[in-house]
Amino acid sequence: MLTSSVLGMGSLSMVMAAGGGGEEVHHSILRILHLIYPLENILPQPEKQPDLLLNTFFAFGVLAVFVFMTARSIRSLPESAGQNILEMAVEGLTDFFVDIVGEKGRKYIPFIASYFFYILFLNFLGLIPGFQSPTADLNTTLSFSIIAVVMVNLIAIREVGMGSYLKHFLGEIWWLYWLMFPLHVMGEFAKVVSLAVRLYGNMFAKETLIVVLMGFSLVGLGGPYVPFQLPILLFGAFVGFLQAMIFALLVSIYLGQFLEGHDHEEGHH
Questions:
Q1: SS3 for 13?
Q2: Where are the domains of the chain?
Q3: pTM of whole model > 0.90?
Q4: What angle do CA 22, 25, 26 make, to 5 degrees?
């Protein structure tokens, strides 16, 4: 289930991210693929961010191969250290998110965990020389955010029913329905903006700082090469992990708000 969630999310995000690019043109080592016939006529090339989708496709392909190979090697009784580590990671994330979404939301944890793993890989991709973090582009983070908020609302309708779902937007006080409903609707749009801008801002700042410090290293006044960017690379790994966890955590909180609110209503009845 986690496998299909990761692959499905990757496909949707790539389609939505194809809509545009940044303000400046940036290239990566994957740019050479555009020079290979007939790939030059097949691969999409956004005008201002031509390598955005190349890096996203690359990340998606690596993850797809990893998930496929891992699924084939999994045994009912762990026979390798890799499987033990993977199971510990999955169980740890499951226990962590269950405390937020509750038992009713346990079956949706693969959806939430997929965000964590996919965004984590995209964040780390920019730490590899010659590659770019697709999450440093607002189109990518916005597509993730739209998918997340839409799915949370669809899951809420499925789990609590349309009546309870609408009641969540109306609030508890009947004579304030006219005010609370538009505020809650705007709140859903604010979630999209908040998720997208937070992830984009942090990753774009990290990418920009690395490039600037690499420039200082190269100009070095004729002296020996000094990797000024190394501390930022280490800090970037921490930021990449933290931002992936925050994104997944917020998605789980949004979902938990619908599910827990419905459980409280049932408890009162």
A1: helix
A2: 2-268
A3: no
A4: 95
